[in-house]
Specification:
Number of domains: 2
Number of strands: 7
Low-confidence stretches: 1-8, 225-239
Structural class: alpha/beta
Order of helices and strands: EEHEEEHEHEHHHHHHHHH
CATH class of the largest domain: Alpha Beta
Largest sheet: 5 strands, mixed
Helix content: 40-55%
CATH topology of the largest domain: Trna Endonuclease, Chain: A, domain 1
């Protein structure tokens, strides 16, 4: 994943989608494991060389099974398959005892983004072990399951996106009985729309969707993040505890209560580093990202 919707990377959006509903990946694949509902979604790093795997779908720990590697790619990368094959093989090799097999899926907005030279991987790409998914070929967004429709919404043209988003919100209210699940779908729709139309004000996005964003998590986090960056950048001299507390609050929202060692490392940061952290945390997906950033700072 290397592209952005507005100011935020698309991989952050897909990370949230898969984190909320790990089984969505299997809606895109021809063969589904019997225990698909028990799979866990994670993002892992592979060392030597250092690779980042966008998404890994792990079978239950007590029942070894197939591990699924997922990559969401919205920008042409002429070495994508080299990287995906290396990442997947390396991780599978290092965790061989936990898995019985591996499969990989690459999600593109369209075929035009795909790597041109695929000849070295022709056997793998044409096998049942590797899956290439093109969002614009999934069909009519209004006929897709809600989870897949959310993925499709990320590539909806700006002129159609508002109507489609309102439709998905209404459909979720009608079809989803679980309040928490329904709210999760609302969060994802508003997240996608806020980032698609990042130049609009909150009230303009609210009017577009016919709903209030003020109580949604995406609005609260965006507001808090904006306050953090604004306060940090606005300080010419010194730091106060309030500013550090704001950043800690944002990190707590993402990862839960931070380990004391990590918290102390943040408290020791100087102004320039604190400002950099306030910006970097927008793209952190796991607490390991935070720890790696602190270690390299």
């Amino acid at each position: 994943m290397r592209k952005e919707v507005g100011v935020v990377k698309r991989d952050s959006i897909f990370f949230q989608i898969f984190q909320q509903s790990p089984t969505l990946l299997f809606d895109l694949l021809p063969n589904v494991p019997e225990n698909a509902s028990r799979y866990r979604f994670a993002s892992v790093a592979v060392k030597e060389p250092k690779f980042e795997i966008d998404g890994v779908f792990l079978p239950p720990e007590e029942q070894p099974g197939v591990v699924y590697y997922a990559e969401v790619q919205f920008q042409r990368d002429e070495r994508l398959y080299e990287r995906v094959v290396s990442e997947s093989s390396n991780h599978f090799y290092r965790n061989r005892d936990q898995f019985t097999d591996w499969q990989a899926a690459v999600i593109y907005p369209s075929r035009s983004i795909e790597q041109k030279d695929v000849y070295p991987y022709r056997a793998l790409l044409n096998s049942d072990q590797f899956h290439r998914i093109y969002l614009n070929e999934l069909g009519d967004i209004r006929e897709l399951p809600l989870g897949l429709a959310l993925m499709r919404l990320t590539i909806e043209p700006p002129k159609k996106a508002p109507d489609t988003a309102r439709y998905l919100l209404a459909r979720s209210n009608n079809e989803v009985r679980d309040p928490q699940t329904n709210r999760g779908i609302m969060e994802m729709v508003t997240t996608i729309m806020v980032y698609k139309f990042n130049k609009l004000s909150r009230s303009e996005v609210e009017e577009m969707l016919g709903t209030s964003l003020q109580k949604t998590r995406v609005y609260q986090e965006a507001k808090a993040e904006g306050e953090i960056i604004g306060e940090v950048r606005g300080q010419a001299l010194g730091l106060n505890q309030g500013q550090r507390s704001l950043i800690s609050l944002m990190l707590d929202r993402k990862f839960g209560k931070l380990p004391s060692r990590t918290q102390k490392a943040i408290e020791a940061l100087e102004l320039s580093k604190l400002e950099a952290l306030a910006i970097a945390l927008l793209d952190f997906q796991t607490i390991d990202d935070l720890k790696a950033w602190l270690k390299n700072s």
